[in-house]
Each structure stands twice: as structure tokens, then as C-alpha cells.
Write a structure and sequence with these properties.
By secondary structure, the chain is of the alpha/beta class. Helix content is 37%, strand content 15%. It is built from 18 helices and 14 strands. It has a 6-stranded parallel beta sheet with strand order 2-1-3-4-5-6, with helices on both faces. Helix 7 runs parallel beside helix 8 and helix 8 runs parallel beside helix 9.
Length: 504
């Protein structure tokens, strides 16, 4: 049953909160909540329902069999979390930009008798802040400590803090509970993770958070393939920080995925193009798109951020290698580095158009608490405030070197306005005319239709609406793979500019 209550965070009269009198606590029942993510007006609703969070479904997979567990994702716009029957334990994932929302939910459930456990990166970076809002904190790898927390609840011996290590073999983790996820609400429910960690440790990245030790680990290839097959979806999203950190592992994974006849996308670094034969294996294995953190076109910014990457002067050639193998590119760019002047916005978008990136994501440089960047900004007195709800990469929360915070925010907004304009969409179209219609469908449906997305999400129509386009893309990609294999085997150059993906 959905609660008629909505907490103060959603601007509903406090009197309504007090009017709710839930029934008795149901023993051995746990509710896992993914609080809402504040929407950036320049981004798309669609990215929030691409695929479900693996963090909480993995926690659910670690729940002892004698406990009942349910999952609630507020991004799906289905109202506030359920309250009847009233859970004994509530686990809430806390990200810094919705920490206030998480704390409001925690307070409401605690006042009515539930034990609340807070976990997530923000809890690791700011445990002193989170502690007053919870009965227990799960710091680090939650999959390890969750069963212990529930047993301690049963025994009445719940501790204040539980710490999980990321050093335990990743292959030993139980599979996520995808059966708890409403399949119609997501483009695909097959979110996969094959590797953990990244060979980079960029100063602005959350992986550089003080106290977060995450050595690079991989799961057995067959584990990943079996998980993909078991979910029965034609498309998967790998949520690894960098699926290509170990090229030979990625090659083995692609070879094992090829017989599935499915398609997938993943985040990689641009150095995956060091070996075009690896990119070929990715395409033959079903890769239709990659998310690449270019971050900046200025080498000095990348050096200061400690990002190991090829020269930005070589980015365009490397993008062409991916395009030649039918793989679309979603580029990520960070704005506001110390070597960025006011011309960074126009230069970045011009490069994106020249390279024909199918999509791009912009972020204002944001010093996450606990990272080297945060410590540096704090010591220099450049932080404007610590209102975490604005640390969402769409607001300037520090003083840039060569522009005002207002100019940085205006430039960020201009980049999205320009990128999503009709002219820019057309200039970035694929060279292969056969790829233009699906590319235009992606650009207009995914990035210029927020009102449509809102209705699709609210009525749980995301999956049904996108499924035909996903299947069309899969069929086109299977045909492309056959052509690619024949062309490459004949010793010819791959089909230049033949991007296949419909944007999934």
C-alpha cells in the first residue's frame, strides 16, 4: 500500500505527517529505499530510468532467506515509499545531493518504530553528519555487512557502525534481486557489473574519497554472462567505472557475450582504442555505445586532476575508431577547471560537433567531500558553501579561477541548450545515412522530450515504449556484426562512420 504521507522535503503540510498512524512493526521485514534525485533542468528524465540501481538490488540479494525484503525507487515517480505493512528495518542509500531527503525519510520511519540503516558514499565521506539520523551506519561494502546487521536486529544487539571491505573477492557476492524491480519502469533491468574500481584516481572523482579503498577486481566472465542471460533482456548496461581497465579481461568478456546475440553499453576510458582489434571484439560482442570521460580538452587540466589519458589532440581520431566499429560515443565533459577560461564552453561544443559525438554530458566541476579536490578548495577558501543539495554538478559551489560562479553556470546551461538545438543535432549526425534515422530518434525522444518522459515514468511505460526501438537496434546490430566480421576478415578497413545504435 502506498502511503498518503509525503514528508516536508516535498512541501506537504506537517500536520498530514502526524496524522499517519501505521500498524504494528512487521518483524523480519526490510524496506530498501533509493531516494529521489533532484532533476537538473538541462538534463533528461530518461537517464534516471535507464536501468535500476545495483547497489540496493545487490543488498537485497544478500538478505537472509528468512527475511522479507522490498525495494522502492523514488525516481520512478510513484509517490512516497510504502508504509503498510510497516517494516522493521529500513535501509536508505545516501548520495550527498539528496542527503536531506534521506534524512527526512529516516526521521519519519524512526519516529514510528523502524530501525533505520544509512549507507552509501555520502555516509562514508561524512559519517559524523549521517550518524544522528540513523540507528546504524553501513560504511563501505554494504553487501558484506547487511546480513550481520539484520541478525543483530533480531538479537537486539544492533551496533552504531558496521564496516565492509572492498577487498573481499568480488566473485563471492550474491547476484542482485532483479525480481524486486518493476520491469516496465526501466529501459532494461539488466544492469551488470563485471569489474570494480578504476586504474585512474582523478582528484575530482568520488573514487578518490578519503577512506575509500577499492582495489580493481573482476568477476568470472561466465558469472557475468549467466547473469545477462538469466534476466532475459536484449540489452544490458554495464555500470562499471571502467570496463576496459584490463584489456584482456574485456576481450574475454566480449568473446563470451557474442553468442548471446544481445547488445550492451558501458563506460570505458578512451585508451580502449589503443588496440583497434579490442574495439572490434567489443562490437562483435554486442557493444553499441560507450560513455567516455574525456573531461577536458586542455591537457593541463587533466594533468592537475591526475587523470591518465591520451592527449586531447588525439581524441578525435580515437572517437573515429569507435565510430568505424559501429559504436556510438557519449562524451563526458567537466567545466570549470583552473585552466578553463570563458571560451571553454564554445570550444568544447565545437569539438563535440566536429567529432560528431552522438551525445554528451556536461558537469560543473564539483568538489565532493572527502576528495583531494574538496580538501584543496577548502584550504584555499574557494568553497562558497556546503549545501550538499547543490553539489549536483549543475551548480557552481566554488570560485573558479577565470570566471565568476554565475558565468560558469550560464556557460554550462548554454552548452546543453546548444547541444540539444536542432542545428547541433543535425551537425552531429552519423556519416552513414542508414544510421541517421535511429540517431535522430534517440536525440529527440531521449534528450528533447522531458514532458513525455515524465508521463512514461509515472505510468510505468518506459520499458514498453522503448522496447521496439531496442529490438530494432539489436536486429540492425546483428546485421552490422556480420558485415563487420566479413569486411575485417577480408583485410579491408571497417565501415567508416557506421554508427548503429539507436541511442540505448
Amino acid at each position: 500500500m502506498k502511503s498518503p504521507w509525503i514528508p516536508r522535503a516535498l512541501r506537504i503540510a506537517p500536520a498530514l505527517e502526524a496524522s499517519i498512524r501505521p500498524g504494528p512493526v512487521r518483524s523480519k521485514s526490510a524496506l530498501l529505499i533509493n531516494p529521489f534525485y533532484p532533476k537538473d533542468p538541462h538534463a533528461s528524465y530518461g537517464k534516471h530510468v535507464l536501468t535500476p540501481s545495483l547497489a540496493l538490488t545487490s543488498i537485497a540479494g544478500a538478505t537472509p532467506a528468512d527475511w522479507e525484503v522490498s525495494y522502492w525507487d523514488e525516481n520512478l515517480l510513484q509517490g512516497p515509499p510504502p508504509w503498510e505493512p510497516f517494516p522493521e528495518v529500513v535501509g536508505i542509500s545516501v548520495h550527498l545531493t539528496f542527503a536531506d531527503r534521506a534524512y527526512a525519510l529516516a526521521a519519519w520511519y524512526r519516529e514510528r518504530g523502524a530501525k533505520v540503516v544509512l549507507g552509501g558514499l555520502h555516509v562514508l565521506s561524512c559519517p559524523e553528519e549521517a550518524a544522528p539520523h540513523a540507528d546504524a551506519l553501513a560504511i563501505g561494502e554494504g553487501v558484506q555487512v547487511w546480513p550481520e546487521i539484520l541478525r543483530d536486529v533480531e538479537a537486539g544487539t544492533l551496533r552504531d557502525v558496521y564496516r565492509g571491505s572492498y577487498r573481499r573477492p568480488y566473485r563471492d557476492d550474491p547476484p542482485p534481486r532483479r525480481d524486486l524491480v518493476p520491469r516496465r519502469s526501466f529501459l532494461t533491468t539488466t544492469s551488470l557489473i563485471a569489474t570494480r574500481g578504476c586504474h585512474n584516481r582523478c582528484g575530482f572523482c568520488y573514487l578518490a574519497t578519503n577512506g575509500l579503498t577499492m582495489p580493481y577486481q573482476v568477476r568470472d566472465v561466465q558469472q557475468v554472462v549467466d547473469e545477462f542471460r538469466a534476466d532475459g533482456q536484449p540489452y544490458a548496461v554495464f555500470i562499471d567505472n571502467n570496463l576496459g581497465s584490463r584489456p584482456e579481461y574485456l576481450r574475454s568478456l566480449c568473446l563470451a557475450l557474442r553468442p548471446l546475440g544481445a547488445i550492451w553499453s558501458a563506460a570505458v576510458t578512451i585508451d580502449v582504442t589503443d588496440d583497434p582489434s579490442l574495439v572490434r571484439e567489443m562490437a562483435l560482442g554486442g557493444c553499441t555505445g560507450v560513455f567516455v570521460g574525456f573531461e577536458s580538452l586542455a591537457g593541463a587540466n587533466l594533468v592537475e586532476a591526475n587523470k591518465k589519458t591520451p592527449s586531447p589532440a588525439d581524441y578525435a581520431r580515437r572517437v573515429a575508431v569507435l565510430h568505424d566499429h559501429g559504436i556510438q560515443v557519449n562524451g563526458s565533459f567537466v567545466l570549470g577547471f583552473d585552466h578553463d577560461c570563458k571560451d571553454v564552453f564554445a570550444r568544447t561544443v565545437a569539438w563535440i560537433e566536429d567529432a560528431r559525438l552522438e551525445c554528451a554530458t556536461f558537469h560543473i566541476l564539483t568538489p565532493y567531500p572527502g576528495t583531494p579536490l574538496f580538501r584543496s578548495m577548502e584550504s584555499e577558501g574557494r568553497l562558497l558553501h556546503q549545501n550538499w543539495s547543490l553539489y549536483d554538478t549543475s551548480h557552481a559551489v566554488f570560485r573558479p579561477r577565470h570566471m565568476t560562479p554565475e558565468e560558469l553556470e550560464e556557460g554550462y546551461a548554454w552548452c546543453y541548450d546548444r547541444l540539444f538545438s536542432h542545428g547541433s543535432i543535425w551537425r552531429r549526425r552519423p556519416q552513414d545515412w542508414r544510421a541517421v534515422p535511429p540517431y535522430l530518434a534517440m536525440s529527440y525522444l531521449y534528450k528533447k522530450s522531458n514532458r513525455i518522459w515524465h508521463q512514461l515514468i509515472r505510468h510505468r511505460l518506459t520499458g514498453p515504449a522503448w522496447r521496439p526501438l531496442v529490438e530494432l537496434t539489436r536486429q540492425r546490430h546483428l546485421r552490422f556484426r556480420r558485415r563487420l566480421e566479413q569486411t575485417t576478415l577480408a583485410g579491408d578497413r571497417p565501415m567508416a562512420g557506421t554508427v548503429v545504435s539507436a541511442g540505448v
